[in-house]
Specification:
eight-stranded parallel beta sheet, 431 residues, alpha/beta, nine-stranded antiparallel beta sheet
Length: 431
């Protein structure tokens, strides 16, 4: 059965009426791993099974929807979703550039507290051999969530990673409070436990606006829940190193609903934050309307925002929130150590304020490993750290005065001319 390109076909009552009653429960796989193996065994192959043909290969499952391949994309992707008897869902993802199967992935998602959450994944190669699996384990009566990397047998655990955990005990360092709006923070690492801003009860003041819970652990799962992007910890490690007294307020951004960015600003204000470090941005202006209003309503806070890494002039091609031109927002981009704009970094003679070295910067990643990173995301914590050090020495500074202190550090780049509005800070660590 073929589907029209670019359309999503959904099945419900029609599929139920067109198909015989599912086979008995005794023939239905009763574990996530069983469904994954069955899906790869029955549906993986050079030809795509569509519609009811696919459904009949999975006893007890009902096809919910399927998204056909798009010939305009260089890597065609087909997604099929099935409802399982247990109330779970089975998702099939085929990646087949030029019509040739390259990767076949099966996933099981389970309803948890009213939300469909990923449980297990199996990945097969173009020959339909299972090469690896992943499993997400949620621990009852605990915030602990673990991601397990599985061998091809889908049972042997090769290693595990933390997706969420309880806050560690520790002390508030007492310095200026810096909110880190990012993918979260691996706050259980030793370098962070005594750098978290805490309330009178000793609990950290961070929050997860993505999952709406108190544990903003590092992980952007917008592309794949089984392969999270870890970004926030590396960014935060720069603040830990370059602003020794700063107290961190980690805030995991609300990727499912960016209209809630205003809530993040208000949360930071209530926590006594003076500096917001935010290596975020997008082309969707509407996502940032509440952020703009909240920043205007909280002039006591200074936000340091990244210019982005699209290799574009933001004066001509705006990104948000950088292009709002708010008086209590500084937009920063990345240079090399000599004052040359870094490859891929955005610029703008009126939109971007500061350029500073943020290439090949030493950071600590979410595992606690020492690595190096580059880009405007890492220019943000360098400038935020400088602001925090200044504020630690002069806590009574207003936002305008703090902003002026930062701008006073800027000088013309010896190479670039007027690519930014204010100038280049050659060494943010210089006193």
């Amino acid at each position: 059965m073929g589907l029209t390109t670019g359309r999503i076909i959904r099945y419900g009552l029609l599929a139920a009426l067109a198909c015989p009653t599912p086979q008995s429960a005794a023939q239905e796989p009763d574990a996530a791993e069983d469904w994954l193996r069955l899906a790869i065994n029955r549906l993986c192959g050079p030809e795509t099974l569509w519609g009811l043909e696919a459904q009949q290969e999975l006893p007890g499952a009902w096809l919910i929807s399927e998204e056909p391949e798009d010939p305009t994309r260089s890597t065609n992707r087909i997604v099929q979703r099935f409802a399982l008897p247990s109330g779970e869902e089975l998702h099939i993802i085929r990646v087949q550039p030029q019509g040739r199967l390259r990767r076949f992935t099966a996933e099981v998602h389970r309803p948890v507290e009213g939300q469909l959450r990923p449980v297990a994944q199996a990945m097969a190669d173009g020959a339909c051999n299972i090469v690896a699996g992943r499993r997400i384990v949620r621990h009852p009566s605990s915030p602990e969530v673990t991601l397990e990397q599985l061998d091809s047998d889908l049972s042997t655990v090769k290693w595990s990673e933390t997706l969420q955990t309880a806050w560690p005990a520790g002390n508030d360092p007492g310095g200026p409070r810096v909110a880190l709006v990012d993918s979260g923070l691996a706050y259980d690492l030793d370098i962070f436990r005594n750098r978290l801003a805490r309330g009178p009860d000793g609990k950290p003041l961070g929050f997860d606006f993505w999952d709406n819970d108190p544990w903003p652990y590092d992980g952007d799962v917008s592309r794949n829940a089984f392969q999270p992007i870890r970004h926030g910890s590396a960014v935060a490690s720069i603040v830990v190193r370059e602003a020794p007294t700063a107290a961190l307020v980690p805030l995991r951004y609300p990727r499912p609903d960016m209209s809630r960015m205003g809530e993040i600003v208000n949360h930071a204000a209530a926590a006594g934050v003076r500096i917001i470090a935010m290596p975020l941005g997008s082309r969707k202006k509407e996502d940032w309307v509440t952020f703009k209003s909240a920043m205007q309503a909280n002039p006591q806070m200074l936000a340091i925002v990244s210019a982005g890494n699209n290799g574009r002039d933001l004066d001509e091609q705006p990104l948000w929130p950088a292009s709002f031109g708010l008086s209590n927002v500084i937009v920063v981009t990345s240079s090399d150590a000599f004052g040359r704009l870094a490859p891929g970094s955005n610029w703008g003679r009126t939109t971007v304020d500061i350029m500073l070295p943020a290439e090949n910067v030493p950071v600590i990643d979410f595992r606690g490993a020492k690595v190096r990173a580059s880009g405007t995301s890492y220019a943000v914590p360098r400038l935020a750290s400088l602001a925090a050090r200044i504020l630690a020495e002069e806590p009574e500074l207003t936002t305008d005065e703090l902003k002026a202190r930062l701008f006073d550090r800027a000088t013309p780049s010896p190479y670039e001319g007027d690519v930014v509005a204010v100038g280049w800070i050659p060494d943010p660590l210089r006193k």
